[in-house]
């Protein structure tokens, strides 16, 4: 059995009330880069493999067609482009990697390929690229779209997007750069190639006007949980993000991914899943439980509604007093929003024909938005026991993407200094092998 990898999800470390909780920075506010630099140093010392940033470019506005509630309560906003922050963090660390998110639904592959090549140089080969198919109207409208692209087309565009990026990253061969001072020849023209791509969504001539990066291409990450999303993951991902709500769902995802990988001619043993979870770690179980109550108290009903609607891309304010789960999924699909997330989990648990009332739906929504449905709470020893058991039952390939619902930085400090230290003491974490220089070596070697 291989050891587990640990990543920290910093996507919302500064939102959803965390900025005001006990243990938050005093005198430093987002986006102060010094906060992230200090956390990166702590993670580097603690053996964390990856610091991850999700992204969204719009303020949540799906709930009641207004962004006011999200603005007032700081729900999933503000969001900055974190590439400059990653560059700064890389200068004070040596080992930890950095995951950055861009949308294949809105962005152009040439721009993204060039940016990630540059960041891979700055970080010394420690970049991962999380490519997403966007499902949020707030984001779409900032890129000139009046409605969301149909679900299947989003994944077709993603696959073409990644194909273009990979071609661009390889358009300048690794040994193309000569730098011969005597002859003053800089590079071999025979090793610099156009890609001449003409597809359904993109036309790109290439080549990429950049020096090949340390990893050639970043570690490619994808998080699609639908059958179409898993198919996309199997076609190109080096690492998959999975949702860890329950063991049965995790095992189904692992089986479906393995089958899809085999169909693509790829080895399932080489593709790990980082399971998403929230953790509240305390010195004792009692301390952790007390800290959990601060999280639940920080979320209002309006914050929950905003988060649910934004993440689904569907306005839940118009729900009737009672409804069938299958009917709700059909409505979400018609709106080109995502039927995964809360609605998908409820259908998995109760079935499409389950009749649910509005109050019950939002009670489940509270658990989903706050993360209670996939939150581990307890001492480092208790949580380490659970993770070791879960890791074995889900195939012993990958690890965990851990976020903290507590204040930044104290919640993450407990994950690193208590939980990661306990797992390392047990020998449960993946060991760094001699010669591992890049993030790809560490996560995919």
Automatic annotation (TrEMBL):
Coiled-coil ranges per UniProt: none
PANTHER family documented for this protein: ALKANESULFONATE MONOOXYGENASE-RELATED (PTHR30011), C2H2 FINGER DOMAIN TRANSCRIPTION FACTOR (EUROFUNG)-RELATED (PTHR30011:SF16)
Molecular-function GO terms, alphabetical: monooxygenase activity
Keyword Oxidoreductase: yes
InterPro entries referenced in this protein's UniProt entry, alphabetically: Diverse_substr_monoxygenases, Luciferase-like_dom, NTA_MOA
Domain of life of the native organism: Bacteria
The species this protein was found in: Nocardioides daeguensis
Entry keyword Flavoprotein: yes
Protein name, entry field: NtaA/DmoA family FMN-dependent monooxygenase
Keywords, sorted A to Z: Flavoprotein, FMN, Monooxygenase, Oxidoreductase
Luciferase-like domain: residues covered: 31-396
């Amino acid at each position: 059995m291989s050891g587990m990898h640990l990543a920290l999800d910093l996507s919302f470390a500064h939102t959803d009330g965390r900025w005001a909780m006990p243990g938050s920075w005093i005198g430093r506010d987002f986006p102060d880069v010094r906060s992230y630099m200090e956390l990166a140093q702590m993670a580097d010392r603690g053996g964390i493999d990856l610091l991850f940033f999700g992204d969204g470019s719009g303020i949540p506005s799906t709930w009641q067609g207004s962004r006011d509630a999200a603005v007032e309560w700081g729900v999933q906003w503000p969001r900055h482009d974190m590439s400059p922050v990653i560059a700064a963090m890389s200068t004070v660390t040596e080992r930890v990697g950095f995951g950055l998110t861009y949308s294949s639904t809105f962005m152009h592959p040439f721009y993204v390929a060039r940016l990630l090549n540059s960041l891979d140089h700055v970080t010394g080969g420690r970049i991962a690229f999380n490519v997403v198919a966007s499902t949020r109207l707030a984001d779409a409208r900032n890129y000139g779209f009046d409605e969301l692209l149909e679900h299947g087309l989003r994944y077709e565009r993603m696959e073409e997007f990644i194909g273009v990026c990979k071609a661009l990253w390889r358009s300048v061969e690794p040994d193309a750069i000569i730098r011969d001072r005597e002859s003053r020849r800089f590079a071999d023209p025979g090793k610099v190639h156009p890609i001449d791509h003409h597809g359904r969504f993109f036309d790109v001539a290439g080549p990429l006007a950049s020096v090949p990066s340390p990893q050639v291409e970043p570690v490619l990450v994808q998080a699609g949980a639908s059958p179409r999303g898993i198919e996309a993951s199997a076609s190109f991902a080096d690492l998959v993000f999975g949702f860890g709500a329950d063991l049965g769902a995790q095992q189904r995802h692992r089986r479906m991914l393995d089958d899809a990988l085999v169909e693509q001619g790829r080895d399932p043993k080489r593709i790990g899943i980082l399971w998403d979870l929230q953790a509240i770690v305390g010195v004792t179980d009692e301390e952790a439980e007390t800290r959990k109550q601060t999280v639940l108290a920080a979320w209002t009903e309006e914050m929950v509604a905003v988060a649910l609607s934004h993440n689904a891309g569907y306005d839940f304010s118009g729900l009737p007093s009672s409804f069938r789960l299958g009917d709700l999924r059909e409505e979400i699909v018609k709106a080109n929003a995502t039927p995964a997330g809360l609605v998908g989990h409820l259908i998995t648990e109760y079935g499409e024909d389950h009749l649910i009332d509005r109050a019950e739906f939002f009670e489940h929504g509270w658990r989903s938005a706050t993360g209670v449905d996939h939150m581990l709470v307890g001492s480092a020893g208790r949580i380490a026991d659970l993770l070791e058991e879960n890791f074995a039952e889900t195939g012993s390939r990958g690890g965990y993407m851990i976020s903290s619902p507590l204040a930044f930085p104290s919640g993450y400090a407990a994950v690193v200094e208590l939980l990661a230290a306990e797992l390392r003491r047990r020998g449960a974490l993946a060991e760094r092998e001699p010669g591992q220089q890049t993030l790809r070596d560490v996560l995919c070697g």
